[in-house]
Design a protein that fits this description.
Structural class: mainly beta
Number of domains: 1
Helix content: under 10%
Radius of gyration: 14 Å
Strand order of the largest sheet: 4-3-2-1-5
CATH topology: SH3 type barrels
Distance between the termini: 16 Å
Order of helices and strands: EEEEE
Shape: globular
CATH class: Mainly Beta
Mean pLDDT: 84
Strand content: over 45%
């Protein structure tokens, strides 16, 4: 689920669940969940040389979250991302 920027505000507590499809090891998906306080929601370009979009870069939606243990995590959002405001 890609999100609308106005939906998320710094200080909100989020739970982000992502699924990664696996081609090998019997298929299926690998799932991971991150929970914490939203520091910022932004779009950022990568150094992808093959993207052929604006500035020849691939633009990604990202969340920056502070987990309960203080660790700051940057999450790249894609079609397999599900975000819950908690």
């Amino acid at each position: 689920m890609l999100a609308a920027p106005q939906r998320f505000q710094p200080g909100q507590r989020l739970r982000v669940t992502q699924q990664i499809p696996r081609q090998s090891f019997g298929g299926g998906t690998a799932t991971t969940t991150i929970e914490g306080e939203l520091l910022r929601y932004y779009q950022s370009k990568t150094g992808s040389w093959f993207a052929h979009s604006k500035d020849d870069k691939l633009w990604l939606e990202r969340l920056e979250i502070r987990k309960d243990n203080g660790e700051i995590v940057t999450i790249n959002l894609d079609q397999y991302s599900h975000i819950d405001v908690i």
